Amino acid sequence: MNLVKTALLWLMAAFYFGAGVNHFVNPDFYLPIMPPYIPWHEAMIFLSGVAEVILGIALLIPRTRVLAAWGTIALLIAVFPANLHMALADVPVGDPPESAGVMRWVRLPLQGVLIAWAWWYTRPDPRGSRADVTPSA
User: What's the pLDDT at 44?
Assistant: First the structure.
């Protein structure tokens, strides 16, 4: 894996690990973002935090990298309704709560960028070596 791809992998892993930890440190931030039709808000915040922490770590382990990248894609798709709810309902967030402004709309296409970024780590190394993305038997 080249230096840029490796550096971006570490950045992505740190991002998900940190975001996951934030679900435990600051769960009240996420409560207003939860769409009303999703049940068990606190449990969902906890589970998504656990998933982000695990995925962040698993991205750095060559044997689990591809599965973690696909898991990251699935997680991004799963949390999209919360981002959509935040944008459409102009959900106030933060302390004190305030409108997310234009960021509530920027987050929606950003999900596609994050999905493409994770998808990059499901692909074989362009030099022909699959060692960094193929789980060994």
Answer: 95
Per the CB < 8 A criterion, the answer to whether 16 and 56 are in contact is yes
Q: What pLDDT score does 128 carry? A: 53
One-letter identity of residue 113: V
The CB density around residue 45, as the number of other CB atoms within 10 Å, is 21
The model's pTM is 0.84
If phi > 0 it is left, if psi is from -120 to 50 it is alpha, else beta; for residue 18 that is alpha
Residue by residue, DSSP assigns 47-63 as HHHHHHHHHHHHTTSTT
Long-range contacts of 103-108 (CB under 8 A, 24+ apart): 107/83, 108/80, 108/83, 108/84
Q: What pLDDT band is residue 100 in, cutting at 50, 70 and 90?
A: low
